[in-house]
Specification:
single chain, about 260 residues, Metallo-beta-lactamase, Chain A, seven-stranded mixed beta sheet, about 30% strand, disordered N terminus
Length: about 260
């Protein structure tokens, strides 16, 4: 558990929920990769090495979950549930689930299947915040980028707060559609006291990408992603943001100075 007390005003507890490192290529299949055991040279040509890492953020009024991981299970339990419990949090304590987008490595843990094959939301007491056009796009596009069956439970569900464009949640969480990594991808700023956390999802997935003008072919608009990263990096350093990196194998949390 990583606890940060900023200027003795308010306390954020930030918990990275690592599901491990993976290689992924154009097939969009996530293959487990053990950094201390496997060799980088042996990974498939053209594949990326990424961490899959949702975050829990405990604020003065919420236990937030940002994105929900791959949705893998072990011994009949979702990995994200196991990871939460290992950090002293029960799944029913999550109050809000913020979704940057619905690609399967970010949205696999949205729901879980019961013994009859029916899907239910994985966090029974949480409000889920999802861009409506992202959901429509995901359902229309489907496999392999999206797992339509797993996310279909969102449709018409009373716990889902459908977002349309930019806005604020409870005057403390700002969301903004970028249309950069994917057509309806959104990013979040979480404000507590005088401090600001930034989660850029797959627009800003790794620390190193913030520091150079990297353009990825896999992004919907790679040039826009690069430009946004440059903008956020400069603004974040000037304002002292804390960055959260979903796919960074070494630096999940970076406090800009």
């Amino acid at each position: 558990m990583i606890e940060n007390d900023f200027q003795n005003q308010n306390t954020f507890t930030i918990i990275p929920l690592s599901e491990g490192s993976f290689t992924v290529d154009k097939t969009k299949i996530f293959q487990p990769f053990e950094i201390n055991k496997d060799h980088l040279q042996q990974r498939p040509v053209g594949s990326l090495l990424v961490e899959v890492q949702p975050f829990v953020i405990i604020t003065s009024k919420d236990i937030l979950l940002i994105d929900t991981g791959l949705g893998f299970s072990k011994n009949g339990e979702l990995q994200i549930h196991s990871n939460l419990k290992a950090n002293g949090i029960q799944p029913d304590q999550i109050t809000k689930v913020l979704m940057s987008h619905l690609h399967k490595d970010h949205a696999g843990g949205i729901s879980k299947m019961d013994k009859l094959g029916n899907y239910h939301l994985s966090f029974p007491n949480a409000r889920y915040y999802v861009q409506q056009k992202e959901f429509e796009f995901a359902m229309e596009t489907g496999f392999p980028s999206f797992m339509s069956e797993e996310i279909s439970v969102l449709q018409n569900h009373p716990q889902v707060e459908w977002l349309n464009g930019d806005g604020m949640i409870d005057n403390s969480i700002q969301y903004h559609i970028t249309s950069a990594h994917s057509p309806f991808h959104q990013v979040f700023w979480i404000n507590e006291g005088n401090h600001k956390l930034f989660f850029g999802g797959d627009d800003a997935p790794q620390l190193q990408q913030m520091k150079n003008k990297f353009i990825a072919k896999y992004d919907f608009d790679g040039k826009k992603c690069m430009e946004l990263r440059q903008q956020w990096w400069q603004q974040g350093k000037a304002e002292g943001w804390t960055f959260l990196f979903y796919h960074d194998t070494k630096t999940p949390i970076f406090e800009a100075q």
